[in-house]
Amino acid sequence: MKELLIIAIGSAIVNNVVLSQFLGICPFLGVSKKTETAAGMGGAVIFVITLASFVTGLIYKFILTPCDVQYLQTIVFILVIASLVQFVEMFLRKNMPPLYESLGVYLPLITTNCAVLGVALTNVTKGYGLLEGVVNGLATSVGFFLAIVIMAGIREKIEYNDVPKRFQGTAIVLITASLMSIAFMGFSGMI
Amino acid sequence: MNKNIERLYNGIIKENPTFVLMLGMCPTLAVTSSAVNGVGMGLSTTVVLVMSNLLISAFRKVIPNGVRMPAYIVIVASLVTIVQFVMQAYTPALSEALGVYIPLIVVNCIILGRAESYASKNPVVPSIFDGLGMGLGFTIGLTLIGFIRQILGASLGITVFVMAPGAFLVLAFLVAGMNVVRDKMEKKGKPLAAPAGCLTGDCASCTQSALCTGKSQSAAKKAEE
């Protein structure tokens, strides 16, 4: 239990997926203009990464390891994630229209998210079991949710500020990310 | 100009993936804490890019249009796996330093971008040179950024530059600087190619989302011109 907690805090806050590992920069910069959409994207990422950690963990443990073909992990994981996202999209559209309404538009963007593949590979590299892997996936994506929602909140304020012309747009967002990253470094003493 | 030389020039200068198109920002931020890491990442991406352009161009008439994205991904992922093992065997220190970012070359926008916009429509030899040019352009970009961060962080002792916040900061100034260059070139009547990657804030323009939607996206079209 204690180990799971350490994994969770470590992945969500201390080694934040965006601010210290630079995974998932694309949606972090692209979908962080409004807090609502950022929260929607964050929610979709939590859903997909947790599910993908579980599925890739299963495949690694029960297919790749018994057949002794662990070296195929990159190829298998990327294909599984891509089809998983597409399957989730179809499933939600058919069976849970309200959830699809709120998450559906973000789902196609998520395969572009290197965080999903990154978490699946990290789970294997660190030798996590199925449960640890799912906890790590959940915590990592909660860290993503935190970062993107905070960023969206700050960007809503920046809208009213007088930013130098050359820094308007992406550059000021990157400077904000740099300051957030400094703030998150403060957590590094926690574990 | 010779078409192959033109491809090299296009990748290294005219459409430099780091400075002009601003593609592949995940590895750019992550591995540029030193110049050596930048070179290592750049060269391993170059190898994958040249090989994937070669194979995809060679098989372009065989791969059915409907499943081309999954097919490209299988090709790229296999090449990345090979590169990963070669690096583990011959450059273990570098392989350790780059860690998970080596297998993540699979999701680098540049590779699928070139596959979709160039290699799938052109003969083998120009495709190889296109991959080589783009790869070297990427290597030069990563090395320069790594060099700057290493000088500021390790040599001058402003440690924050070799840590995560420094990566964002250096990239922010790079984007702002490129905005200045862009304006100047525009006034001269020689506009630069538009940035196509994540930094435009348009995730959907990344070629990889074509994987899900099945549509060919704006980035591919832009990069082609």
pLDDT averaged residue by residue of chain B: 85
The end-to-end span of chain A amounts to 15 Å
* β-strand number of chain A: 0
Shape of chain B: globular
Specify the overall morphology of chain A: globular
Commentary on this structure:
The complex is a heterodimer of chains A (about 190) and B (about 220). Helix content of chain A is about 75%, strand content about 0%. Chain A is mainly α and about 190 residues long. Chain A has one domain (about 1-190). Chain A is globular. The model of chain A has no long low-confidence stretch (mean pLDDT about 90). With about 220 residues, chain B is mainly alpha-helical. Chain B has one domain. In chain B, helix 1 runs parallel beside helix 7 (about 125-155) and helix 6 crosses helix 10 (about 220-225). Chain B contains ten helices and no strands. The interface between A and B is large, with 48 and 49 residues.
Secondary-structure map:
The complex is a heterodimer of chains A (191) and B (225).
Chain A: H1 2-14, H2 25-30, H3 35-64, H4 73-95, H5 97-103, H6 107-110, H7 114-125, H8 130-158, H9 170-185
Helix pairs in contact in A: 1-8, 3-4, 3-7, 3-8, 4-5, 4-7, 7-8, 8-9
Chain B: H1 3-14, H2 25-31, H3 35-58, H4 68-90, H5 92-98, H6 109-119, H7 124-155, H8 164-188, H9 210-213, H10 218-224
Helix pairs in contact in B: 1-7, 3-4, 3-6, 3-7, 4-5, 4-6, 6-7, 6-10
